[in-house]
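hey team, just a heads up i'm posting the complex here instead of the shared drive bc the drive is being weird again. everything in one block, sequence lines first with there labels, then the predicted structure for the whole assembly after. its two chains so it's a bit long, scroll down
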Amino acid sequence: MKIAVFSQTPVDRSTARLSLSYIWVAYAAFGLAALAGMLQGMVRGGLIELPSWTNYYQILTAHGVLMALIFTTYFIIGFLLSGVARTTGGALHAAALRWGWAGWVLMTVGTAMALVTIITNDASVLYTFYAPLKASPYFYIGAALLVVGSWLGGFAIFSSYRKWKRENSGKMSPLFVFMSVTTFLLWIIATLPVAVEVLFQLIPWSFGWTSTINIMLSRTLFWFFGHPLVYFWLMPAYIAWYVCVPRVIGGHVFSDSLARLAFICLLLFSIPVGFHHQLMEPGISPGWKMIHVILTLIVVIPSLMTAFSMFATFETTGRKKGGVGLFGWLKKMPWSDVRFFAPFVGMLFFIPAGAGGIINASNQMNAVVHNTVFVTGHFHITIGAAVALTFFGVSYWLIPALTGRTLTRTANRMGMVQTVFWAVGMFLMSFAMHYMGLQGSPRRTSYTTYMDHPVALEWMDYQRVMAFGGGLLFTAAILLLLILGYLTFFAPKGKTEYPIAETETVQHTPRILERWPVWVGVLVFLIVMAYGYPILEQLNHHPPGSPPIRTW
Amino acid sequence: MHLHRYEKIWLALGAGGLALFIALLCVNAFAMGMAPPSNMEMIDPAQVTQTPPFDNPGLKKVGENEYDAYMTAFAFGFAPGKMEVPLGATVNFHVTSPDVVHGFQIPGTNVNFMVMPGHINSASYTFDKPGEYLILCNEYCGAGHQVMATTITVK
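-- predicted structure starts here --
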């Protein structure tokens, strides 16, 4: 179906078309993933049984791949490309458009390949694809195409950035562009090792060209990527928080240099930390695990900076609008504007999510929660609430801005309802997950009572709460798709603002923040320090490898 | 670069709290011996059933009320099937896998670790309360993952 793009858009038509193409693949994946997620909840809650032609782990793989990899990556590229165009003169130049479309085609071919292998039940290995579980080679090739395609999307951003720099030499780049470049620097560096894992370990092994695989190395390469992946989801949400939300509430960017510093911190301290996902594994010494734990926890600093900046912006803006007293400014926030309300609810979810993250990353406490459904609860309130609600809030203005339509009062009100449903569903589901996890209930496990063991029977009530939350989330997902469909095809034509905030006064931003060779250099140093020796050890000193195994 | 005074206080409190927290983690791990399970021993995954002591999984008494439990985790079960120890026993679990990656968790205790082919992983626990403890696999390992469990009875 061709999406009509009308004239009154904040970016030109070709950019809008490219951006919308990414965003709609994202939401198509989101819809399927939401269905799979709801079914999982119902199965685990003991409410339904799946028909014989499918199984829990197949739909779990579909849910993970479609939500965590497809929905996020497509949405992020679509959003950032439009924002880069908006802040560099309203259009992407020809080279950037070509990179953007080439990326979209590669990613879509890869997504289709991975989906077909999941549907034929040849890839029920979950989105972490831990070897020696062996999926169809075409699943891995699809994943590789998805990753390489996303790099091309990143090249579109780099190419626009270079063009802007050439034409504005000596100036600091716009904040949105700086943050987009940081996000894609992180993404490209972080995905290199998983590309190595897929190309040099998994694909030859799954075709039978090599007989065994080094399990430890494959897991280390995966988690080198697996943690920065969550920052790749988070950083575009932070971009919306730092740059777009302040404008929505009629305020300003609190501090340009602090925003940039927070992003540099995220770039540096999200990669050399993967062992915190491997704390309970043999073959990695406690000392190396501790180094990664310390580097992981440093992320507390940019998170606190972000929290401060957000609430400083809210308070300053609220007081200007006449808010008095300690908390009077809160009343002046546009609570009935979904463009503010959805990301704000996401921010609230991020507070307990951050606390849960500290628990997960801590050496000893991890033994209590590792691989329990606590972890599933944790990432459902980070990615599934903080990030997803922000992406929804962005979509409510981004899609009409790109199609040249308007977010009507009714659509806004429906968006508010959708946000409440999503938030309540996520609260119930993740609360139950956190609670059951602390009792020891495992994640990624189909319905089971472990032969009616009393410990497992105690989880059942919470599993039903989890399923009920999942039902609310699915309702919210359908409502979201209906609203976004309306905003794409049917809403009245008109001008919709693409909110980009600026600082109130001219601020001096230290130039060092934009010297990429310095930061990439520091990052490479940290990576070599944290990973160099352990990876050398894993290459030189390892047990006999594992043959491919299919256990489903 | 300008930092607001409140922001300096906020970040200083955050960074101070973080430093204290990290120091406690290090003391816990290295001075108090509570590092996560990190056994460095290796084994040929294809030879597990022929390699002692995993050729004959089970409990071996190593001290007064202390046992080594040599176990294998496989798709979809644990060997030995059931175990029984006296109240107050300390059990040192040593587990490996002949096939895919599994998990080893005893809900209600801090015993929770990954079992990987080619590696042996270990954890110890002193069972001070009687009962039938559930041992389950908490890493997805295939179609029968949800039935992969056993028990250890403490009397």
